[in-house]
Design brief:
Distance between the termini: 31 Å
Order of helices and strands: HEHEEHEHEHEEHH
Number of domains: 1
Strand order of the largest sheet: 3-2-1-4-5-7-6
Helix content: 10-25%
Number of helices: 7
Largest sheet: 7 strands, mixed
Shape: globular
CATH class: Alpha Beta
Length: 216
């Protein structure tokens, strides 16, 4: 049983230790079709570049994409249509979401598709006892501030409603890792949101902006 996924952090082609964590998760639960979907990571395919080198296949999208990264504006309204457009299988191994804005709302909007593992950026500037997100705006672009994404509690509750268990976060408080609950049982210690939460160990924003009080 894995008690702390951050112990497995290792960078090969990505960052924030995701390569090692992803490997450890799939050692525990196994793989099926080795298919991934990642969006919002351009120009760095942070969480799937190494998987591609290991024989995985999948879809990578971004609003500024080029080449193998499909150039697509990603919204809650079109995410299911984009999956259909690129023939994403209904069941696949890994989904990675990092769009620095409407992450919560886009994940919430995904239906008909059931990834076994979900990696999603969370806003660790928000305390673990607060369930908050940015106001949904399909045209929202990160402005360099701490106004982005959603709190870990908001994402954990959303994950539960979709059948996922929060199993851990990376050490710097950037990404949260979820596994389908039926796969996570007995393989990951997990814990409460307060126990799993990691505060920000980075300084990405250039100025402060007050997060709106949106309860989700």
């Amino acid at each position: 049983m894995i008690d702390d996924v951050s112990k497995f952090e290792r960078n090969i082609s990505g960052r924030d230790g995701a390569d090692g964590i992803i490997e450890a998760i799939f050692v525990e639960i196994g793989t099926t079709n080795k298919y991934f979907v990642e969006f919002g990571s351009f120009p760095c395919r942070d969480n799937t570049t190494h998987l591609s080198k290991m024989g995985w296949s999948g879809l990578v999208m971004d609003g500024n994409g080029t080449g193998v990264v499909k150039k697509e504006k990603i919204t809650a309204e079109n995410i299911n249509q984009l999956f259909a457009k690129y023939s994403v299988p209904a069941d696949f191994d890994l989904l990675s979401i990092d769009i620095d804005s409407n992450d919560y709302w886009v994940w919430k909007a995904i239906v008909w598709y059931r990834p076994r593992v979900v990696i999603i950026e969370y806003n660790s500037h928000i305390p673990p006892n607060e369930s908050r997100s940015v106001t949904y705006d399909p045209n929202l672009i990160w402005d360099g501030s701490d106004y982005y994404g959603a709190s870990l509690l908001a994402l954990a509750d959303l994950g539960t409603s979709k059948g996922y268990t929060l199993i851990g976060c990376d050490k710097i408080g950037a990404n949260a890792y979820f596994v389908l609950t039926e796969l996570a049982c007995g393989k990951f210690k997990g814990g409460t949101v307060r126990e799993i939460y990691r505060p920000p160990g980075f300084r990405r924003y250039t100025h402060r902006r007050i997060m709106p009080s949106i309860s989700v």
